[in-house]
Amino acid sequence: xxxxxxxxxxxxxxxxxxxxxxxxxxxxxxxTAPLERILQERPQGxxxxxxxxxxxxxxxxxxxxxxxxxxxxxxxxxxxxxxLAQQAGGDVKRAGKREYGKADLTRYGGQLFAGIQGEFxxxxxxxxxxxxxxxxxEVVAETEDTPVTAxxxxxxxxxxxxxxxEVVHTPKGGQLLANFLEICGVTRDWTAEHIIxxxxxxxxxxxxxxxxxxxxxxxxxxxxxxxxxxxAVGEQLTAVFIDHGLLRLGEREQVEAAxxxxxxxxxxxxxxxxxxxxxxxVSDPEQKRKIxxxxxxxxFEREARGLxxxxxxxxxxxxxxxxxxxxxxHGDKSGAANIKSHHNVGGLPDDLNFKLVEPFxxxxxxxxxxxxxxxxxxxxxxxxxxxxGPGLAIRCLGAxxxxxxxxxRRVDDIFISGLREFGLxxxxxxxxxxxxxxxxxxxxxxxxxxxxxxxxxxVTTDDFMTAEWARLPYEFLATMxxxxxxxxxxxxxxxxxxxxxxxxxxxxx
Length: 509
Ligand code: XMP
Prior knowledge:
Elements: E1 2-6, H1 12-21, E2 26-30, H2 35-40, E3 45-48, E4 74-77, H3 79-87, E5 91-104, E6 107-108, E7 121-132, E8 138-142, E9 150-153, E10 158-161, H4 173-184, H5 192-207, E11 212-216, H6 220-233, E12 237-243, H7 251-259, E13 266-270, H8 272-279, H9 285-307, E14 312-314, H10 319-324, E15 355-357, H11 365-375, H12 379-382, H13 402-421, E16 430-444, E17 447-460, E18 468-469, H14 474-487, E19 491-496
Parallel strand pairs: 1-2, 1-3, 3-4, 4-10, 11-12, 11-14, 12-13, 14-15, 17-19
Antiparallel strand pairs: 5-7, 6-8, 8-9, 9-10, 16-17, 17-18
Helix pairs in contact: 5-6, 5-11, 6-11, 8-9, 13-14
The chain binds xanthosine-5'-monophosphate.
């Protein structure tokens, strides 16, 4: 394995992700983890991550004594490289200005860059730089602003890069990390099946003989989690699907049909009346989200009490959710602004007696999809676009009602089925229909109409943090518009959202 010592960089998880993509097993430990703990992992290589600290700060986190003496290759990234250089007798100084963003390597070579050709764009984020090279090291890459951008000591197998090879903005970073694995002699046979075994093992250790309650939303994450937990703890799991009345057409039935045959002990709760009651007359988007989050928790508590004692609440939280909802709830230091309160992470009352089980906290969506495939989740759920916890409520602008939900459900179904029918579904990252409160004049047959406007939105994105509107064919949009106004009489106008994120968000509320 490769042990990654984390010194607080927001990109540390990406290093494991890249290694996983390369088929190598790695594990993240706190930067200051004791030597014995590190040795337990039988490391064949060590990565010292980046971090916000400066190596000449007394309080800067440091690896335990002995780590640098281990006879395995060590790669220092950013702060990690500065630490390596300083410990070997080099100098690190505050650069005149912070270097942030893409930089071209003006030259590169050495073992880490073996086999890499052409332009090398490196993503930088640092204010300290190595200013004097330690003994035994040589500079193997430089940029215009940073003469010491990568260093290596081939004898002791110590390597350092000032940039972040793990982020997508360093396109050839994966090759560099692959070279490091090669130097470490790590076999690259780590697959999603191994990840499943590991997750199952972790869940069993955490849960013991406790009882687990899982909220199933119908999306790929919680459904996959249901399958994983069923495999890990079987009968100790009760999965609860709350029908809050904000679901898409036929969704509840689809989820039941997918999970029950695969051994998930699934209970469906009809809480439509409670949610509708609580949302009655509420038009503020954040307010709606908060109410839905709160009602979710209430419904679970109610259900849990009815079913006896539960020790754990399982959640399909993914790594990107953890970043976007930051605010330090789980000790993440990314400091990303909280744009919308995602209720699957926040919102749990303090007096809740459950402990959390969140096996996917370190995973990304595509990894969960791969796990889902291996666990047998049907394709239509596995490859489903994400659907927000608050459901159609945040796609029906302003105060919602049964009637409006029903209109929106039908519009959504026409649009989503249409995308599938025309083979456009998988090309979009997410597609949605929005019911606006705008009423406008139209003419149908010979009659004047005064009805609602529906908006369609489809986006492409890698990470949902930024997105482009999908360039759907005009012909397709025309067909959708026709179908919608013909089949949903409450709608007489259809518009397509041509705004990216930013400045807009994907959801309208
Ligand atoms: P926005 O609208 O912020 O959406 O651009 C980004 C992604 O997050 C989803 N989303 C949510 N998911 N609970 C969720 O589980 C929420 O409250 C929530 N709000 C937005 C949205 O569907 C998109 O995929």
